[in-house]
Amino acid sequence: MTLKMTILVENHLSPHAAAGMQARAGLSILLDDGENRILFDSGPDETVVRN
């Protein structure tokens, strides 16, 4: 079995983001084994919930 892990650390807001979106430092990890995908997404506060 092969497991692909994609890690993203970002804190910039795209110029194309919807109005009202906010940027915060965060960490996202995507695990993909070809059949299943699991996304872990975290940040320092509740901004991810509001967005």
Word description of this protein:
This protein has 51 residues and is mainly β. It has one domain. Helix content is 8%, strand content 39%. It contains 1 helix and 3 strands; from the N terminus they run E-E-E-H. A 3-stranded antiparallel β-sheet has the order 1-2-3, with no helix packed on it. The longest helix is centred in the last third of the chain and has 4 residues. The N and C termini lie far apart (35 Å). This is MBL fold metallo-hydrolase.
Give the helix proportion (percent range): under 10%
Number of DSSP strand runs: 3
- Structurally, the number of domains stands at 1
Please compute the radius of gyration using only Cα atoms: 13 Å
For the sheet with most strands, the description reads: 3 strands, antiparallel
Secondary-structure element order, as H and E? EEEH
Determine the mean pLDDT.
88
- The total count of helices amounts to 1
How much of the polypeptide forms β-strand, as a percent range?
A: 35-45%
Strand order of the largest sheet: 1-2-3
Main structural class: mainly beta
Uncertain spans, ≥5 residues at pLDDT below 50?
Answer: none
Protein name: MBL fold metallo-hydrolase
Organism: Enterobacter cancerogenus
